[in-house]
Automatic annotation (TrEMBL):
Residues 186-247 form the ANTAR domain. Gene3D superfamilies: 3.30.450.40, Winged helix-like DNA-binding domain superfamily/Winged helix DNA-binding domain. The keyword Chloroplast does not apply. This is GAF and ANTAR domain-containing protein. Residues 1-20 are annotated as: Disordered. The keyword Cell membrane does not apply. One of its GO terms (molecular function) is kinase activity. InterPro entries: ANTAR, CheY-like_superfamily, GAF, GAF-like_dom_sf, GAF_ANTAR, WH-like_DNA-bd_sf. SUPFAM superfamilies: CheY-like, GAF domain-like. It comes from Streptomyces mesophilus. It holds the Pfam family GAF. PROSITE patterns: ANTAR.
Amino acid sequence: MPSPPSAPSVPPSRNGPPGLTREARVTAALINLADTLVDDFDPAEFFYRVAEHCMDLLDIGDAGVMLALPGGPLRLVAASSERVRLVELFELDASEGPCCTAFRDATPVDHAINGLSSQRWPRFTTRAHHAGYTSVHATPIRLRRETLGVLNLFRRVPGPLLEGDRHLARALADATAISLLQQSTLDQHRTVRTQLETALVTRTIIEQAKGFLTARHETDPDTAFHRLRAHARHHRLRLADLARDIVDGTTTLPPPDTDRTSAP
């Protein structure tokens, strides 16, 4: 009796449990993003989870999340790596690029980066090309008719983001906006604006703590941030609170070779 055909191999997940199909990981991600109706909701950690789910589910090399207060400018609140963080900050400083346009026009934007001069966004294109990216897909985070921010998806291999990934990126952006709205209903005194303000303020504290750990332990920023998040999760601390304590000197993380919470 011939043996049944073997199931196709499942690509490994960057962040999710190993062995799960992509469909199962999509379901788990949407459930995870919807789980915001809790008293200890951590906006900073939430937006880093959004970036992680983008990395896990989409064929991209890096992801960034930008937000804006009503009537205010875009600001970076989460990035999957130090490399993309610097590109995103350059884009905001230059006030040009697909992410800024996607936010202003409230529509997805695709941009190919091939090393040639771009008439539309020349400075951004040059900076992104030097960072190793080949294309960008920016999709707005919208709540009804209001645009709250943008998901920025960077690729390092040739070709644009596939159509299926574009639809999934739209779903992740919608889930992000809906989660912010439902969390704000937990307390009538909370608003989406308050959540955005909290995320924007705490990002500065987190960057300070990341820089402190980078210098103190002579490591790179990505490793320092990974250890910061791992320690917060292991000890059930809010990411911003731990970062503030590290900057203030009231909490000290052990050296990397003795800190088991930072192990993958």
